[in-house]
Design a protein that fits this description.
single chain, alpha/beta, Rossmann fold, seven-stranded parallel beta sheet, 22 helices, binds adenosine-5'-diphosphate, binds magnesium ion
């Protein structure tokens, strides 16, 4: 078994290893430490979070610096303030028996002067975020032209956050013959570029599988009208029962608004923005980590440095201005070798920005359609079926089986299945009948609401070769109306729904009196629910409590009972 004793570490550092209770070196440590101690070399090391990278570069760096010289010899660059502080504390522990070692952290949001003072008093190692570091260099408060070692920690993360240019400038202030040690969890193209441009034949160490950070995220654009944005968001969420997402908005107000709307609509959502107290933010983050919160709605600033693995989707409710910000957002997903989706909800006016992002980020955006009701229902039922399949049954159910069998004796397996799924199906269909694609209460739709609108049922659906678009065309022709006069068209397998202004009710009923389609009699009726639009539920300020999951596959009675939505009867 590997031991810290034969890695080549000095006595004072080994004492710290023992003091800290490290028994055996991690894989990255046993691979990197001897290399860095023996050879004067550049290094690219790839290893997941939590594999002990700090010690892998920390111990060699501490061993190599000359504590008698009061000049900056080692520079560590890390993406966030939290990481800088973490690395500084960790290194302080490693160096506890190495007298005269001085390490300082510099990062934004704290006094520049104080940081400059501590640098002046003579330090050998500076741990810094790119922005503040560049600031200090340019203000001549810090010189890095004599450093011997430069560590880029979490390089992929830094580039994700748009620090490419900053890092390039920083490196331009360092001496040509310094050594660069790059640590990263993934190897996207930007990281490879840094390695190629600024490193000389680096030793490569990989722990676990090498993965391509940049390509594990796919990018999609949904073009929707401003009025349909929220409804589209819900459809996207509904269409993936496994979704675990961060939704980005541009302002604190919008962030709060969207989170509240989602909570009102029964989703497990939470808001994260700068107007919340630290305590509130901590609570929301804890809930998100534990997955009690399924959807985190956040501002760019508040979401900096979110390090939750397994986020399946990043949704841009509003696009950012800068391509770098887009990169930082989408970098929250597709981590640790997983695939991720970055979805943009765009209006027509966002098109140019998307083209600009494509060019600048060299990423391909796919255009996608907002999920159809039929598709959502299919996914939800499939997920329900999967869950049923994977349910582990406790033995104690046995004693109840005779009762259940007796009660259900007259029903065969097929019918039973239909009943089990039929219930979920009805609920979903009912829901979309009411809360459909254009059901937002916005100023644009309110003029319509004034006169009232009526929702119709028609007995033609996908089975008859329709989708919502062709259904709309069919209705337009049959009713001799404009496409705009027919809205909220939803097509399910056997039937469809659509709305028209209340004033046109008679016209619609009259028009379909004696109509056939492919030999079938077409039947059109006014639905009982009417055409009501929108969710009138008033939001409760500061409500971050999580409500029961709205996934249709879970304990349906309970969740629907608590739901504010009027569509469920
Ligand atoms: P990474 O940078 O790869 O995400 P860290 O360097 O932050 O990982 O280390 C993660 C945790 O593991 C830290 O709390 C650190 O103290 C601990 N650790 C590092 N190396 C060892 C080791 N050899 N034995 C036990 N714990 C270790
Ligand atoms: Mg680390």
């Amino acid at each position: 078994m590997q031991s810290f004793l034969n890695l080549g570490l000095d006595e004072d550092l080994l004492k710290a290893v023992q003091q800290m209770g490290f028994e055996t070196p991690s894989e990255i440590q046993s691979k990197a430490i001897p290399q860095l101690l023996e050879k004067e070399t550049d290094l690219v090391a790839l290893a997941q979070t939590g594999t002990g990278k700090t010690a892998a570069f920390g111990f060699p760096l501490l061993q190599k610096i000359d504590t008698k010289r009061k000049v900056v010899q080692g520079l560590i660059i890390a993406p966030t303030r939290e990481l800088c502080l973490q690395i500084t504390t960790e290194l302080g522990k490693y160096a506890q028996f190495k007298k005269g070692t001085r390490i300082v952290a510099v990062y934004g949001g704290a006094s520049v002067r104080e940081q400059a003072e501590s640098i002046k008093s003579g330090v050998q190692i500076v741990v810094a975020t790119p922005g503040r570091l560049l600031d200090l260099i340019q203000r001549k408060m810090l010189r890095i032209d004599q450093i011997e070692y430069c560590v880029l920690d979490e390089a992929d993360e830094m580039l994700n956050m748009g620090f490419y240019q900053d890092i390039k400038s920083i490196l331009s202030y360092t001496p040509e013959d310094k050594l660069t040690w790059l640590f990263s969890a993934t190897m996207p193209a930007e990281v490879a570029q840094i390695a190629k441009e600024f490193m000389h034949r680096p030793v490569e160490i990989t722990v676990g599988s090498k993965n391509e950070g940049a390509t594990s995220v796919s990018h999609f654009v949904y073009t929707v009208s401003a009025r349909n944005k929220y409804a589209a968001l819900k459809r996207i969420v509904d269409s993936d029962p496994q979704l675990f997402a961060v939704i980005f908005c541009r302002t604190k107000r919008e962030t709060q608004k969207i989170a509240e709307k989602l909570i009102e609509d029964g989703y497990n959502a939470g808001a994260l923005h700068g107007d919340l107290s630290q305590n509130q933010r901590d609570l929301v983050m804890a809930g998100f980590r534990k997955r009690q919160i399924q959807i985190l709605v956040a501002t760019d600033v508040a979401a900096r440095g979110i390090d939750v693995d397994d986020i399946t989707h990043v949704i841009h409710y509003q696009l950012p201005d800068e391509p770098e910000t887009y990169n930082h957002r989408s970098g929250r997903t597709g981590r640790a070798g997983k695939t991720g989706h970055s979805l943009c909800l765009c209006t027509n006016s966002d098109r140019r920005k998307i083209e600009q992002f494509e060019r600048k980020l060299k990423k391909k955006f796919n255009f996608a359609e907002v999920p159809s009701v039929a598709g959502i229902i299919e996914n939800q039922l499939k997920s329900l079926a999967d869950k049923l399949k994977d349910t582990e049954v406790d033995e104690s159910i046995e004693s109840y089986m005779p009762l259940l069998e007796e009660t259900l004796a007259s029903i065969d397996r097929d019918t039973l299945l239909r009943k089990v799924f039929g219930e979920a199906y009805n609920r979903l269909a009912q829901y979309y009948l009411k809360e459909n694609f254009s059901s937002e209460n916005t100023s644009e739709s309110s003029s319509r609401a004034k006169h009232g609108e009526v929702r119709f049922f028609i007995n033609l659906g996908e089975r008859d070769g329709f989708n919502w678009k062709s259904m709309k065309d069919y209705l337009k022709d049959a009713l001799e109306l404009q496409r705009e006069d027919i809205f909220k068209v939803d097509t399910l397998n056997n039937f469809s729904f659509f709305n028209v202004d209340a004033g046109l009710t008679d016209l619609v009923l009259e028009a379909f009196k004696d109509t056939e389609h492919n030999g079938y009699r077409v039947s059109v009726e006014v639905t009982k629910q009417g055409g009501g639009s929108g969710d009138k539920g008033k939001s409760k300020k500061g409500n971050f409590k999580t409500k029961p999951s709205r996934n249709f596959s879970k304990n349906s009675k309970k969740t629907t009972g608590k739901r504010k939505r009027k569509g469920f009867y």
